[in-house]
Specification:
6% of the residues lie in helices and 54% in strands. It has 196 residues and is mainly beta. Strands 1-6-7-8-9-12-13-14 form an eight-stranded antiparallel sheet, with no helix packed on it. Strands 2-5 form a two-stranded antiparallel ribbon. Strands 3-4 form a two-stranded antiparallel ribbon.
């Protein structure tokens, strides 16, 4: 069992909020600027994680892990005249560009020396990422939650000192993104031959 926790505190945090300039004579013709600045607000980040790997037998092992991450600005105060203080704080927190999901989890099962002649092996891994707000100079968007499954099956040929493997990353083809503006991540299918 592995467990961990962390907490960080930043003073004079540097971020780059987007500033919209709209000329009064033509407000439709606006420009966007990103200006780096040190913030007077305190920024804190914190999180925890736990992982468990268990060897069930000489042929089977399982594992699970979970990570939780969050951040805040406890002394943030919106500009004078702002009506929706929570919306202003949410916008400020997004502009910090931590860009991480609050929840992430993994689970895996590995088996080896299966079958009558103990030549087969198999591995399955499940991964989950929660949704999160992504903010960059390029743009801002909600990155949807996603989950993927990786599978591999192997067969060992002792006389040839060779192991054949067939597998896939994201076998069920659930396309996903982790960065706003990036292409969708798809699946990878492979066959490998390893000589020992």
């Amino acid at each position: 069992i592995d467990a961990s926790a962390y907490g960080t505190q930043y003073r004079n945090f540097i971020n780059r909020p987007l500033i919209f300039f709209r000329p009064e004579e033509n407000p439709e013709d606006f420009q966007i600027f990103g200006i780096r600045q040190n913030r007077s607000e305190t920024v804190v980040g914190y999180g925890a994680g736990i992982g468990l790997d268990y060897v069930v037998s000489s042929k089977l092992s399982v594992g699970v892990s979970y990570d939780w991450n969050d951040y805040d600005s406890p002394d943030f105060s919106p500009a004078e005249g702002v009506e929706d203080e929570q919306a202003a704080k949410d916008a400020f927190l997004r502009s910090l560009q931590f860009n991480i999901p609050e929840h992430r989890a993994n689970a895996n099962v590995s088996a080896k020396r299966l079958g009558k002649r103990e030549r087969w092996g198999a591995h399955y891994n499940f991964r989950y990422n929660g949704s999160y707000n992504y903010f960059s100079n390029f743009g801002e968007a909600l990155i949807p939650a996603f989950n993927t499954s990786d599978i591999a099956v192997s067969y060992r040929i002792p006389d040839w000192r060779t192991t054949l493997k067939i597998g896939s990353s994201n076998v069920f083809r659930q396309e996903y993104i982790t960065i706003y503006g990036a292409p969708m991540i798809g699946s990878l299918y492979y066959v490998s031959v390893r000589y020992e």
